[in-house]
Every structure is written in C-alpha cells, then in structure tokens.
Specification:
With 178 residues, this protein is α+β, with helices and mostly antiparallel strands. 50% of the residues lie in helices and 13% in strands. The protein has one domain: 3-Layer(aba) Sandwich (Glutaredoxin), CATH 3.40.30.10.
Amino acid sequence: MSTLAPPVGPADHAHGPADAPVTLVEYGDYECPHCGLAHPIVKAVESRLGDRLRFVFRHFPIASNHPHAQHAAEMAEAAADRGKFWEMHDLLYGNQDALEDEDLLGYAESLGIDPAWAASALRSGTFAERVRANFLSGVRSGVNGTPTFFINGARHEGPWDEESLLAAIAAAAVTAQR
C-alpha cells in the first residue's frame, strides 16, 4: 500500500483542525472530470464529519490530458497568496469547462484579486514551483491518476463515493484511537 510522502505539514492547504482524528488528502487536477465529480462528494463528507476531519488538497495537474490544469493550479496558488485558496478551489471545480487564462483572471477578479497581478503571476510562473512540488510529492506517494485519496497517510484503494469514503474514514478513526 502506498503512503503519503511527505506527510501533511503547515504548507499544505487544509480545512479542519490539525488535531482531527482523520486527515483526508486528495491529489487533484482542476480539469479532471473525475475530480469534478469527487468535489461535491468531498464537500459532503466534510460537512457530515465536521471537526472530526481535516481535508488537505494537493495539486496533481496531468498536463498531457488536461492542458488548462497547470495554470488553474497556479491560479489557485495565486489566490492562496491572497488568502483565497478555498474560494478559488471551489470556483475552479464549479467551472471546469471554462479554464482558459482569461477565465482564470476573471475568477481572480471576482474574488477581489487584482487581475493584472494575477496575469503577471501566471506569465512569470510565480507559483509553478509550488504546483510542481505538490505534483512530485504525488509521484513519490505513488499517485498515477486523479483523484487519488490518502486517509491518515495511507492510500485509499477503494471507491470514493460518499458512503465508501465515510466507511474508510470511520475505520481509520478507530485505528487512530488505538
């Protein structure tokens, strides 16, 4: 079974308390249709578990299949730089069919981020290294497609529908209490 490398740390984008009994990590690609399907499932799981779950998102843009995924991930990082990662994350998944650079800049502006600054960040690749670091951590963790989930550091090999994820998370919580 693959394990998460590196473990979750302070540089990760996380929802929920650091001391939650279970941490769910997703490696995702904003242009991946499967990730788009997983997004509301993860939101539902988060809603049902509340403070008993910490959710972490790491970028894994598969540029060979999804030509807009890299810039979408970089725009999410640009938004993170302005304290708006999760808002951009949700916008990107909500608009998977509109991920051209001009769309990304419009999303930035809608979040109160200066579109000229965001355009400059995309052009210069300001956040490309952060996205690459996430991608390489996925490679080290055995990720070969998206979405890929890890529960308390162990790769989740089962289905990722809501009930299956909840069952796997419940099992991990029991193990964590031992």
